[in-house]
Amino acid sequence: MTIVSVVKTHVNERFAKRLPFPVPVEMGMVVVATLVSSLANLEQRFSVRLVGTVPSGFPRPRLPVFSAMHLVLQDAIVMAVVSFALNVSVARLFAKKHEYRIDPTQELLAYGVGNVFSSFFESYVLCAALARSVVQEASGGRTQLAGLVSCAVVAIFLLFLGPLLQPLPQAVLASIVLVALKRMYLQVFDLRTLWHVDKLEMLVWIVTFASVLIIDVAPGLLIGVVFNLFLLIVRAQLAAMALLGQLELAALRVNENLDTSRELPSTKILRFEHSLFYANAWRFKKLVREMAPLPGSKGCSGDSSRLHHLILDCSCISYADTAGAKAIAKIVKEYQAAQVSVHVCHCRESLLGVLQRGQFLQDVDKRVLQASIETALEDVSCGNYAGEQEVIKC
What we know:
Number of strands: 6
Strand content: 5-15%
Order of helices and strands: HHHHHHHHHHHHEEEHEHEHEH
């Protein structure tokens, strides 16, 4: 392991620009270790564990046993979800490292076709092997040609050269994998960054890592996915509402350190900074009522602070379901009943579609919908609504 690590770190990486290709130290270690083990008879003399018998040839193709489908259906669904999550995770890991993009839909289609084809040969479920991927990447593989060469070498060994690997010590293979995974292990130091950036994201990392370490890779990843979905619901429950002010005719968040912005008199501009659906529709209504109290309510201190105009900025609502649309409609009708003009701005296509298809605003003036905060502010300053021509989606 020391030899492999030294060659990769102090030769391949240091002289990468001078070498025409990286030194194949892994292949050299396999050849040397196989010869030494065979000549020195390490298994019998020192009880060294070897690779052992390697089956030769390909199995004959035949139809899958469909009668046993009900016995493996539940496990197959779990394996499909976990394997796809692992495949995409490994792909995104290398995509981020080498700065290229992947398409999860294309990955799903490729693995689906591959699994259908391989089912006729009684193969295992196709899944990305992190250790082999790291070894291939560390050896200099960058394109799909590297995978094709690897497949060809594996095929040659299965057909002709498999017996030659029988005396190879398993410790040599383990050392190659451990050296290749060294950079993966160093990612544990990313916890310090995650602690300062997002503590919930760090919690996902810890739960997934502990599950994989204590249980196994497949159930550990499944636990991590389920825990992450649970945290999405938690984040929805903690969604924030921003109070906006005016700075040089632009709507900005009112912040304690932003002394130059000011809140317009008798006007509240609120922005809900999350998708709006059944899990947080109640919080949306609660925050609006707290930050823009209705006239005569507990939070309204007097006539000087009486609310006349409410502007809802929906630019951050990328998704809204029926419950979210009902929450917006309820707030609009509730404030209009209290003689407060309401403007709903920056509605995205998805939100507009839900509001229109569900006819949630059929009982109110359509001019409630505004293209932007600026047009709504113009209506506030003029004391009326914008014309029909301004009612467009942004």
